[in-house]
Specification:
heterodimer; A: 446 residues; alpha/beta; Beta Polymerase, domain 2; Rossmann fold; 3 domains; 6-stranded parallel beta sheet; 4-stranded antiparallel beta sheet; 17 helices; B: 274 residues; mainly alpha; 2 domains; flat
């Protein structure tokens, strides 16, 4: 049984193509069932976000499955394969495992260390469980992926510092004020940028929002969104006095806030610090203001510079993360391989044991007057012979890591001893009833 | 016996300081815990040193330069441990322990014998004057550290550098608040230290104030901190100005404590009593 993933992401396809291939959440269950119905696919899961569309599947016929899945994508979305085939990537086996571990750990994301992707993958997995299209292999794979993602987050600093302009602003505000609680934010201008910045500050804990805009209605509607207060544009000085953080994003061609005004405001505020964020272009706030004591002034470029520095740090951490992922991939693949070996070993033992029991019975019935001690002795003898015979081959089988050799041995064993099919399926079916055995195998492999 | 405890404490402070410096360099939280633990054990030995000396000598052991340096360092470390419990500014240790360590190393090099108490020091006022004055000054050492940290952090934010250094220091607001808080504790203690000193002087030498170098410089120190406190309370001085003033005040503290003893002779000079 082979694992495979086929898909495209922000690195391989532009948004126009990604849009066409995306699966809406409410139709995902139906799509999953359609894929599941394909003969070549055993289990499947679909991950569809604004940055990637991927189909994960387990199959016994890898080449056919790849072909079928590509056809499925083309037919389901009504786009000819030619149009998106070159954007598709396809990973099989160990590469597929590495791919999902990396994606879940946010190493494949547009922004390294972003937290959303893990939740998105969890959702995709839940939906596939509800649609009953994922089985034991995907179950193990996904749970391991979640584990790896958590490990990467806690053991590296990949998700620690702020990498977007708004989160940098929040971090800075916290470096100045300690906490955003009970702090007042003044928005000058009521455009989208202002709203976005305010939203971030509010989620960071800021409590009071004041909005000043030339058009009264805009100010009022924006203020209402944050349960804040709209103040008349002319009263801006009063607003400054009451505010700890000021975000300015108007399209005024001149400076709205100048040094003299700020000097007076600071005196009125008894020098309580103010953090100005000037998002406007041309700038709203006179740059000298930033040199004043207890006044901090950042414009968009400054914030972006800090964000870029932090991104560089994340990239350094990413190397550590890749090492963790590689480690986990090796562990997972080795466990996965053992799955093939285990049922064969079990079948082999069973066959030998059946032979032993039959022959022992025959012999015992020929000698009914044997004492219990002697019967036990025979039992022990026959068992010991079987165990000794099987010991070397079984140990060797368990230790063989190279897939080609393992397959060769397994095949030979099954042919030579007439064992019931090299059936991962049969193994799993048994395990449906006896999950504890499977848990034990999983733990043993680690 | 007390000297042995002192030496052990000094070594532990040395390792604690190194651990704190490693913490500020590598930013691994566990290092700050290890450092705090080492320093705590050192403090325990240091406390033993002072207590045993007290019992052996029969008087409060702050009578010469060796004892004063040890006592000052002891108070600083004690305050550090208290601050750690209450305020969790882990990086404070990285600034404070080196100062305490320098005092201990200085003391290490001095003669440590216990001499019979000079008659002029035999007074009910001795322990009070000494404890108030030293505690006040030790608290001002914390104010100094907060001031230094504030200036460093402020420079980072103003220069738009939010990198390694900024990450290691707490927020400007917290540093300023703690600076102000320590000032409010330290100033009354220093005041009491000066008052008890004056009352004692009246008993011992027949006058409250003689403008000897120690007295003069303590007054200068006191005036500096009084000005800082006043400016903070009325005009709303905060941030950089207050931090710089805290640094200037600490220089005055050091001069009053050490400079006077080593450079300007007078009644207060320990060297005279040896």
């Amino acid at each position: 049984m082979e694992l495979l993933v086929i898909g495209l992401n922000h690195n391989t396809a532009p948004i126009q193509i990604r849009e066409c291939l995306a699966f809406p959440q409410d139709r995902l269950g139906e799509a999953l069932s359609k894929v599941h119905a394909l003969a070549s696919v055993k289990e499947d899961m679909i991950v569809s976000t604004c940055n990637r569309v991927e189909v994960y599947a387990s199959t016994r016929a890898t080449e056919k499955a790849i072909y079928d899945l590509k056809e499925f994508l083309s037919q389901y979305h009504g786009i000819s394969l030619k149009e998106f085939e070159k954007s598709l990537y396809c990973h099989v086996g160990e590469e597929a495992v590495r791919h999902i571990f990396r994606v879940a750990s946010s190493l494949d994301s547009m922004v390294l260390g972003e937290p959303q992707i893990l939740g998105q993958i969890k959702d995709a997995y839940d939906i596939s469980q509800q649609a009953k299209t994922s089985g034991l292999i995907l179950h193990r794979l996904l749970h391991r992926a979640f584990h790896v993602a958590k490990k990467v987050r806690t053991e590296t600093k990949i998700a620690i510092s702020a990498v977007s302009v708004s989160s940098v602003a929040v971090e800075l505000a916290e470096k100045i004020f300690g906490t955003l609680e009970r702090k007042t934010v003044l928005l000058i201008g009521a455009g989208e940028m202002c709203e976005l910045a305010a939203r971030h500050l509010v989620s960071g804990g800021a409590e009071r929002i004041l909005v000043a805009n030339r058009t009264c209605e805009r100010a009022v509607s924006l203020a209402q969104e944050f349960r804040g207060e709209a103040i008349p544009f002319e009263d801006m000085a009063q607003g400054l006095k009451k505010s700890d953080i000021v975000i300015s994003a108007t399209n005024s061609p001149r400076y709205l806030i100048e040094q003299d005004q700020v000097t007076r405001v600071m005196r009125d505020r008894k020098q309580k610090p103010i953090f100005f964020i000037d998002i406007a272009d041309p700038r709203d706030i006179e740059p000298n203001v930033g040199d004043m004591e207890n006044v901090y002034l950042y414009n968009i470029d400054d914030l972006q510079k800090v964000a870029n520095e932090n991104i560089k740090d994340r990239e350094k951490e990413a190397q550590k993360a890749e090492a963790i992922v590689q480690d986990e991939v090796v562990k997972f693949v080795s466990w996965y391989r053992s799955l093939d070996v285990t049922p064969t070993i079990v079948a082999l033992r069973k066959k030998f044991d059946e032979i032993r029991k039959k022959e022992l019975e025959k012999t015992l019935s020929l000698h009914p007057d044997l004492s219990d001690k002697e019967k036990k002795s025979l039992e022990a003898l026959t068992s010991a012979i079987i165990n000794k015979i099987l010991h070397t081959p079984i140990t060797l089988l368990k230790q063989t890591n190279e897939e080609a050799m393992a397959d060769l041995y397994l095949d030979a064993l099954q042919t030579l001893f007439g064992l019931p099919g090299k059936s991962l399926e049969a193994f799993f079916e048994k395990c449906e009833e006896g999950k504890e055995k499977e848990e034990a195998n999983f733990e043993d492999a680690f | 016996m007390d000297i042995l405890f002192f030496k052990v404490a000094s070594f532990l402070y040395l390792f604690g300081t190194l651990a704190y410096l490693a913490y500020v360099f590598f930013l691994k939280r566990v290092l700050s815990r290890v450092a705090a633990a080492i320093v705590s054990v050192g403090f325990a030995f240091h406390t033993l040193a002072i207590l045993t000396r007290y019992f052996e000598a029969g008087y409060t052991p702050v009578t010469n330069l060796y004892e004063s340096l040890s006592f000052f360092a002891w108070m600083m470390i004690g305050l550090l441990l208290v601050a750690n419990l209450k305020y969790k500014v882990r990086v404070l240790g990285s600034f404070l322990t080196p100062i305490a360590l320098i005092l201990m190393l200085f003391a290490f090099a001095l003669p440590k014998e216990i001499f019979p108490l000079a008659p002029v020091l035999k007074s009910f006022w001795h322990p009070f004057h000494v404890i108030f004055a030293f505690l006040g000054n030790a608290i001002f050492t914390l104010t100094f550290c907060f001031g230094v940290m504030y200036l460093i952090q402020e420079h980072q934010v103003k220069a738009k550098k939010m990198g390694a250094i900024a990450k290691r220091l707490p927020s400007l607001n917290l540093l300023d608040d703690l600076s102000y808080l320590s000032l409010k504790f330290g100033f009354p203690l220093l005041t009491l230290g000066i008052i008890t000193g004056a009352v004692w002087a009246e008993y011992a030498w027949g006058r409250y104030w003689n403008w000897d170098p120690k007295e003069t410089w303590s007054l200068i120190t006191w005036l500096l901190y009084a000005a800082l406190l006043h400016q903070r309370m009325t005009v709303g001085w905060r941030g950089r100005k207050a931090a710089m003033m805290a640094i200037v005040g600490f220089v005055a503290v050091l001069f009053t404590f050490l400079g006077v003893n080593l450079l300007l002779p007078g009644l207060h000079t320990y060297s005279k009593w040896q």
